Amino acid sequence: MLSRIKAPVLKAEPVYRTVSIQHSPGSRSLKLKESVQAWLQGSVSDPIVAILAKNSHLTRTQLETLLIDILSENFSGKQLKYDEKAKFRLTKAQISRGAFNRTLKQAKDNVIKSIYTVLLLGYLGVFEDTTLNPYLEVANKLHTYVEAYKDIPNKNAELSDHLKVIEMIREELETSLKQLSSPSEGMT
């Protein structure tokens, strides 16, 4: 009698599914988003960027959007669609592709107008006026600061001295930029 009863066949199936970061396209986009947002957060929290952005024709949102548009493809290594780029914004709210594109257009328009303002003033000879010398000096300091970051040495002994120089340049830049951003100290 026992031979006639069929025993149930048990299949051994894994209880937990193995999740691999390397093979999941969703996790790659999440890591890309985290990388872009970390870079953005670091950039917008930089004291020099904060001073420059405050006195530019770009809102924080426009600057963020412009940076995402320009630099996100460097992070991903491929062309991204605007709805993908919209997801990189630092805001927790969902941003539509249309809102991202409108903000991007505003940012680009403001940048172009700023460049044309500089071109106009140059054409009219305003840059030959000595009142712009402090701005030109700050521009040179900015260049020196950026170059100092590019040339960071690998050796610890040189690194410490180099970082001290960078810190001094940064402090000088912050002071100069704050002074120039005040209407009484800037162009008169």
Structure characterization notes:
By secondary structure, the protein is an all-alpha fold. It has 2 domains: 91 residues, no CATH class; 60 residues. 64% of the residues lie in helices and 0% in strands. The chain contains 7 helices and no strands. It is globular, with a radius of gyration of 26 Å. It starts with 24 loop residues before the first helix and ends in a 7-residue tail after the last helix. The relative contact order is 0.09. The N terminus is likely disordered.
Overall SS class: mainly alpha
SSE order, one letter for each helix or strand: HHHHHHH
The whole-angstrom Rg is 26 Å
Number of distinct beta strands? 0
- N- to C-terminal distance: 108 Å
Number of domains: 2
Low confidence ranges: 1-24
Beta content: under 5%
* General shape: globular
Q: Please outline the major beta sheet.
A: none
* Average pLDDT over all residues: 80
The DSSP helix count reads: 7
Helix content: 55-70%
Task: Identify the notable features of this structure and list them briefly.
188 residues; mainly alpha; 7 helices; globular
Summary of the model, kept short:
The protein has 188 residues and is an all-alpha fold. The chain has helices spanning 25-44, 47-54, 60-76, 82-86, 97-123, 133-150, 156-181.
